Amino acid sequence: xxxxxxxxxxxxxxxxxxxxxxxxxxxxxxxxxxxxxxxxxxxxxxxxxxxxxxxxxxxxxxxxxxxxxxxxxxxxxxxxxxxxxxxxxxxxxxxxxxxxxxxxxxxxxxxxxxxxxxxxxxxxxxxxxxxxxxxxxxxxxxxxxxxxxxxx
Length: 152
Known about the structure:
Pfam families: HTH_31. InterPro entries: Cro/C1-type_HTH (IPR001387), Lambda_DNA-bd_dom_sf (IPR010982). Residues 13-63 form the HTH cro/C1-type domain. One of its GO terms (molecular function) is DNA binding. It comes from Peptococcus niger. The protein is mostly helical. It folds into two domains: 8-74, 434 Repressor (Amino-terminal Domain), CATH 1.10.260; 85-148. Helix content is 69%, strand content 0%. The protein contains seven helices and no strands. It has helices spanning 8-15, 20-27, 31-38, 46-55, 59-69, 85-110, 117-150. The longest helix has 34 residues, at 117-150.
């Protein structure tokens, strides 16, 4: 993010180029409510964060809020959005390499329909690789969603 604020909600608003008054009006809330959120006095509801993400054109805000402020957040993938188009391309290449390798190994391990005790460790290792691929894919999706919201 190019501009930083005291907290992530504020950073997203600043990056959208909105004042507190403009953002509050767009979301139909008071400026005092927004100020409380941006100074960590009040946690916004999921519904308000949904409006914030739309108003600020920042889909990452919704994910961040749930990951950090929901009891279910630990179930969400670890998302690190690419910082540039070049980074996105590199992540795509790495994702393709990893999924190809993991797919071949897992196919071999599961070919006989039985997971032998000596195969379990490899299965866990390649499952972790598949999870990293999934996280990369989600990161790329969030990045592209952000570009779409910006109209790029």
